[in-house]
Specification:
81 residues; mainly alpha; globular
Length: 81
């Protein structure tokens, strides 16, 4: 399984995450923050997939976006209530 998706596929996966998973991206980031201290992207993607029943494509996209935003210090906007 490749560790990264093309930018186009990555963007499509991210756009579908709320409808497909029932969680917003910021909620997945909170889950990753509270999850086990795994350092490898693939290990964290497997953990998400196993614990939350995600496909590995969605789990990998979530982990990659989490890492990308942490490196660039870009916050995830939370939806308005």
């Amino acid at each position: 399984m490749p560790v990264s998706h093309s930018p186009e596929i990555h963007a499509r996966l991210l756009a579908r995450i709320p409808d497909t998973t029932g969680y917003e991206l910021h909620e997945w980031f909170d889950i990753l923050e509270r999850g086990p201290a795994l350092t490898n992207c693939l290990e964290r993607a497997h953990w998400l997939a196993d614990e939350y029943g995600l496909t590995h494509g969605y789990a990998t996209a979530i982990v990659q976006e989490f890492d990308r935003r942490r490196r660039s210090h870009t916050p995830v906007p939370q939806p308005r209530s």
